[in-house]
Amino acid sequence: MTSLLFTPLKLRSLEIRNRVFVSPMCQYSCRDGLANDWHLVHLGARAAGGAGLVMAEATAVTPEGRISPEDLGLWSDAHADALRPVVAFIRAQGAVPAIQLAHAGRKASCASPWKGGQALAPGQGAWTTLAPSALPFGHFPAPRALAREELQALVEAFRAAARRALAVGFEVVEVHMAHGYLLHNFLSPLSNQRTDDYGGSLENRARLPLEVTRAVRALWPEKLPVMVRISATDWKEGGWDLEQSIELARWLKEAGADLIDCSSGGLAADAQIPARPGYQVPFAAAIRQAAAIPTAAVGLITEAAQAEQILACGQADAIAIARASLRDPHWPLRAAAQLHAEIPWPVQYERGKPMF
Ligand SMILES: Cc1cc2nc3c(=O)[nH]c(=O)nc-3n(C[C@H](O)[C@H](O)[C@H](O)COP(=O)(O)O)c2cc1C
Q1: Closest C-alpha to ligand 1, atom 13
Q2: Which of 76, 184, 272, 273 is the most buried (most CB within 10 A)?
Q3: Which residue, by CA, sits nearest to atom 23 of ligand 1?
Q4: 49 CA distance to ligand 1 centroid (A)?
């Protein structure tokens, strides 16, 4: 029996060698937003580890869009140049290099996790965060509400970052609309209480996220896919939910998105999230079915058989792995052996290949 997990996935003209995606993971390891040896080794190891697609972490489109001062950025050509060798290495391993473009919105200006993860204090280099409305996340300082005239510059920042990503060889771009960051702040009624045409109705709350998607799509080559990560629910009464996600996914499809990466949560500090193995898979399944668009499932998917079953049940088209990939950069090579799928190993590692 052939493994679905190791069956190529074709999106537009791009063939991804298998359906294991390395999920974007902030590394908080940059100075001034520039990629360095850490990114080469971290992402490179996971490409050599057999993943079909390796996605670079949330990459800020403006300096204020960083979660922490150590976030990766793409707001200048120097940032793109720093990523060039990383992209070349991922490609040389046969994996698809992808990048997640982000703006952290009201959750920006924080210390990196190992420095406490809290909102930075004024003496620690804090900056004013930006959001649709001046409503804080949990105990964080209140953000400044963006003026309507500022919104097009944000669309332009995403567009410019995508242009740079393309120039250095990324083949997939993902727009980050999840986890309580800026575009999610616009989507959710809990963080967006604007009274102009960017707030209120679902159509209005989705306006900026859709404008960003269209702008990115317009410059991304026809033959290459654009992905979008959403939080399918805020896990909170009165917040963003699956029903709105399905409508948004339909609009994203019209805007030229090719896959919805289905995460959840991150917007409400007090949300109760029932995290257990595969807990977000039903969102990927429902969106795939109702909006007729490919999806990626993510979240506590740790075992090869579990990933295979999600695909076999038609719940998703790809599986994104985050923490399990931190534990084992060769997760895909190991999973292939467990599923009896014959996949090429890096020649340098062939002597470590298990015998069937
Ligand atoms: C260290 C770390 C950093 C993360 N950074 C990002 C990120 O940059 N963008 C994003 O969308 N999700 C990020 N996430 C969430 C993961 O991509 C993933 O959705 C989540 O960890 C659930 O998957 P898992 O159970 O396989 O870890 C991060 C997770 C971890 C553990």
Answers
A1: 25
A2: 184
A3: 299
A4: 18
Ligand 1 within 6 A of 263 CB?
A: yes
Residues known to be catalytic: 181
- Dump pLDDT digits (tens) for 162-206: 999 999 999 999 999 999 999 999 999 999 999 999 999 999 999
Does any domain span residue 106? yes
The verdict on residue 2 lying in a domain is no
Closest CA to ligand 1's atom 31: 323
34 lines ligand 1 (CB under 6 A): no
Q: Is residue 175 part of a domain?
A: yes
Does 23 contact ligand 1 (Cβ within 6 A)?
Answer: yes
CATH code of the domain containing 36: 3.20.20.70
Q: Six-digit token pair at 57?
A: 């972490």
CA 23 to ligand 1: nearest atom: 17
User: Is there an atom of ligand 1 within 6 Å of 209 CB?
Assistant: no
Query: Is 250 part of any domain?
Result: yes
CA of 221 to the centre of ligand 1 (A): 27
Residue closest by Cα to atom 1 of ligand 1: 25
pTM of the full structure: 0.98
pLDDT tens sequence across 225-271: 999 999 999 999 999 999 999 999 999 999 999 999 999 999 999 99
Q: Which domain holds residue 57?
A: 9-352
Q: How many domains does the chain have?
A: 1
